[in-house]
Amino acid sequence: MIPRYLADFKKENLKIEKTDVAIIGAGLAGLFVGLQLKSSCNITIITKKKLTDSNTEQAQGGIAAAICEKDSPQLHFKDTINAGHGLCNIDVVNEVVNKGPKAIQALLYYGVPFDRQQGQLALTREGAHSRRRVLHASGDGTGRVIRETLTARIKERNNITLLEDTFIIDIYTVDGEAKGVFIYKDHGITLLLANYVVLASGGAGQLFKYTTNPEVATADGIAMAYRAKADIRDMEFVQFHPTALVLPKAPRFLISEAVRGEGAILVNHHGEAFMAKYHESKDLAPRDVVSRAMLEEMEKSNTEYLFLDVSHMTEENMERRFPTIYKTCREFGINVPKEMIPVAPAAHYFMGGVVVDKEGKTNIKGLLACGEVTSTGLHGANRLASNSLLEALVYGQNIADYINKNIEKELDNNIKINLPKFKYIFTGVIQPRSIRGEIQELMWKYAGLKRDQNGLTKLTNRLEQLTKELSMPKDVEDFETINMLQVSLLLAQGALIRTESRGGHFREDYPKADKRWKKHINFNIDKKIFYSEI
Ligand SMILES: Cc1cc2nc3c(=O)[nH]c(=O)nc-3n(C[C@H](O)[C@H](O)[C@H](O)COP(=O)(O)OP(=O)(O)OC[C@H]3O[C@@H](n4cnc5c(N)ncnc54)[C@H](O)[C@@H]3O)c2cc1C
C-alpha cells in the first residue's frame, strides 16, 4: 500500500515557512492564477524544474475562442459537446466558451503578441472545429510565448515568489483541510503553510512509453490530491495525439494538428491518403478516430509509423507558419516540406483528473485546482483541440475570483502544525525509480489506444504487485515513480470497469458506446470507487 505521505516528516528536521497562497505548478494555469490574485496576497509559485519545463511551454496550435464575426460561443459549444461524446457538463462548457473572448483579452492586456494578419488576430482551424477560431503566437510557438510573457509580468510583482527546482511531495492537511505543502529541495524538506493550496501541476503523459509530454508530466498532482482524499474521475479517458514525430533517438515531438488544419495529409506506406475511408472529416476527424485509423493502417503494413505529407506548402510558408516544427524536422534530417514526416500516435492529454466545481474548489477545503490536472467537465470523454489552454485561463480566473473574495475572512495566521505520524509502509526491496520503464511499457501495451479485459487485468495485477514491493523513496525520481504507479493503477482500474468505448477510451471487446455508461467513474481513497451522473 502507498501511505498517506510519501516521506517521513520529523519536526526537528523540518523547516517551516508561511505564505498566503501556495501554487503548485508554473504552467499557464499556475501563472495565470498568480497574476489574477490581488496584490495584497503573498503568493508562492513552485515548479519542480525550470520555468520552461511544462506542457504549456510545448503548446503549438494555440487557444480556441469564438472571437471572429463568423463564429459564436454557440458554435464553439456545439463543437466541444460533439468532441466530448456525451460526457461534457453542459453548464461548464457554456461557461468556458462564453468566457473565452474575455480570457483572450486578459492575455492581450498582459502583452501576449498573438499573430496577426492585416492587423486582425490570425485564426487557424484544428480538428473537429467548425470554424477558424484558434489564436496562435510566433507560428507554432504559442505556449512558449504565453509563458514568457506571463513570467515577465510575474517578475514585476513583488508579492509573488517563484521557486524553480523545487519539488512538492504532498499536500499538508489538518482535519481534512489543506493547510500547505511539503517541499523537497536539496535533500531537505520544508513545510510551507498556506491558507489556500492551488494545484496546477499539469498532466501525466509520462505514464506511457510514447508521449508528447515533457519529463515533468508524471501525474504528481493527481497522486498527491488522491492521497489527500480528493475525488478523482474519468481517468480512463486519454487523448492520443495522431501525429508525433517518429525517429530513432528523437523524442516524440508533436507535429501540431494545425499542420493538418493548413492542408497536410496522412498517407500510408503505399502513398495512399487513407483517412477518407475512416471519417467524413478525413484528416481533421476527432483525434481518437484519426489515431485508431493510423493504428489500423500500421497494423496492416506491420510498421511503427506512417507519414504526414506537407508538400502542399512552400518552404517559405512552412518556415513562417510552423517555425519550430520546420526547424526540428530539419535538425533531424527531414527535408520538409519536400520530404514527408514519419509520425505515429502518442499519449498527449488526460481528460480526467481532480474533480472541481465551477469555482475550482475540490472536495477538500482550502484545495483548489485548475488546468490539465483537473476534471472540470469541459472535455467529457475527449478534448476538443486547443480547449485546454482556454480552460486553464477560465478556471484560473474563477479560482482567483474565489480567493480574492474570501481570503480576508478565511485568513488564518495561526495554522496548527499537527505533523502526521508516519507509518512505515514501504517494506519492499524494489527501488521505486527502477520500475519507471516497466510502468511505461505496460501502460502503452495494455492501456494505450486499444484495450481489453485480458490486458487490463494483467496490467492491474502487475501494478498492484509492484505497489507492494516498493522500498522507501529517496529522491525526486523515486517520488515521481510512485506517483506514476498510483495514478496508472487508477487509470487501469477505470479502463477495466468501463465496459464500452467512448472518446479517448477504446475497448476492443466492447467497441461501441453504451448509454448505461453515460456517467463518471470516481475514485476516492476512502470511499474507493463511486459513480456520478453528468
Ligand atoms: C506538445 C503539446 C502541445 C500542446 N498543444 C496545445 C495547444 O495547441 N492548445 C491547447 O489548448 N493545449 C495544448 N496542449 C495541452 C496544454 O499545453 C496543456 O493542457 C496546458 O498547457 C496545461 O497547463 P497547466 O498549467 O495545467 O500544466 P503545465 O503547463 O504542464 O504546468 C504544470 C506545472 O506543474 C509543475 N509540477 C508538476 N508536478 C510538480 C511537483 N510535484 N512539484 C512542483 N511542480 C510540479 C511542472 O513543473 C509545471 O511547471 C499541448 C500539450 C503538449 C504536450
TrEMBL record:
Which intervals hold domain Fumarate reductase/succinate dehydrogenase flavoprotein-like C-terminal? Answer: 437-523
One GO term under biological process is: 'de novo' NAD+ biosynthetic process from L-aspartate
Cell compartments where the protein resides: Cytoplasm
Pathway terms, separated by semicolons: Cofactor biosynthesis; NAD(+) biosynthesis; iminoaspartate from L-aspartate (oxidase route): step 1/1
Matching entries from InterPro entries are given as: FAD-dep_OxRdtase_2_FAD-bd, FAD/NAD-bd_sf, Fum_R/Succ_DH_flav-like_C_sf, Fum_Rdtase/Succ_DH_flav-like_C, NadB, Succ_DH/fumarate_Rdtase_cat_sf
Q: Which residue numbers delimit the FAD-dependent oxidoreductase 2 FAD-binding domain? A: 20-389
Keyword match Disulfide bond: no
The positions flagged as active site in the entry are: R287
Keywords in alphabetical order, please.
Answer: FAD, Flavoprotein, Oxidoreductase, Pyridine nucleotide biosynthesis
| Assigned EC number | 1.4.3.16
Query: What's the short name of a Pfam family annotated to this entry?
Result: Succ_DH_flav_C
Q: What class of enzyme is it?
A: oxidoreductase
Q: Which GO terms describe its cellular component?
A: cytoplasm
Which GO molecular function annotation, any one, does this entry have? Answer: steroid dehydrogenase activity, acting on the CH-CH group of donors
In terms of Gene3D superfamilies, this protein maps to:
FAD/NAD(P)-binding domain, Fumarate reductase/succinate dehydrogenase flavoprotein-like, C-terminal domain, Succinate dehydrogenase/fumarate reductase flavoprotein, catalytic domain
NCBIfam families of this UniProt entry? Answer: nadB, PRK07512.1
Q: What is this protein called?
A: L-aspartate oxidase
Q: What is the lineage of its organism?
A: Bacteria, Bacillati, Bacillota, Clostridia, Eubacteriales
